[in-house]
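Standup notes
- DV: blocked on the single-chain target, sequence here:
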Amino acid sequence: MGKNIVSIMLTVALLFSGCSLLQTRYPLSPIQSSNTELTVGVVKQGNIQNNLRSGGMIAARNGELFFCDSIYHERIFGFKNGVYEQLNPTSLIKSQFSLVFIKYFCYRNDLYAYGQIKEDDRYVFMKYNESTEKFENCTFDFEPYRNFYLTDELAVWIDADHQDALHIRFQDREISVDCGSEVDFCVFDQKVYYVTAERKLYVFDPKSPSANGQLIAALIENLDRFIVNGENCVFSKGLDLYAYSFEDDRIEHIDNSGYTYFSDMTLVDGEIFVSTKEKIYHIAGQKVETVCDCGAESLYSFDDQYLYLYQFPEEKQIKRVNVTTGAIDEVATFR
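- DV (later): unblocked, structure below
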């Protein structure tokens, strides 16, 4: 009864304020202790983007999770069946280069490290050798700046030398799109969505014979981040959240009552989720649904059931939330 009264009061308040309705569809659950039954689901190939563009502090392959526990990202642990152990990062730390940061990702069931070289602002790849328990130098045939997306069929990256150029490789075909400075991109359903310096949203279908992207809409200046699920584009600017509807061709401001800065965005089975340092939200059209009272600096999705939450150093834990029930598991606690 009390919950219904609170819900009614919240609805009335938001309607009078002219804002979109903030809903709580998910039950808010306490943290459950991790145990040996806690497993990592089957990793979807289409969600490999979350290894790369959400900070690179968590990576996953079938049944195994990798995460780092340091602000320098040099200590990495493997987690499987409720047990985690530190991987030996000696060759990565004692490299001849000074690495500014390190990201991790899994590709073709192997674990990789990706670091920026301080001396010349270049980037290097290293592959973890399970037999020697060391990261060893390796090469990829592209050199990205900041973010990249990589599957067997599709690779997307921002050029390290010309940071206004977006490269797209699909099978044996490769094109370069001049987007102006501050280009950013995301991938959904093997289509590349990118925002140019003028904050115009384009889509490029690598299966199309055209070498040009198709203009979708002009967004807003100084947006922080964006994500697309094929129907909507959700993007943030400071404390404000917006949704662009492909069908209606219009931008709606999403109610930001009580929100703080949006720290990350990702997809789970085509649904958009965003995080602040305090909460996780599900964006359904122009409506916001609270998933759980547990925030995250970075969101990761490797299957169609869980969001993995990383918030370091505020919380020295890896947690995950079931996107259907809102239940939270504690995956691992850092020593």
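- Follow-up: The mean pLDDT is 77.
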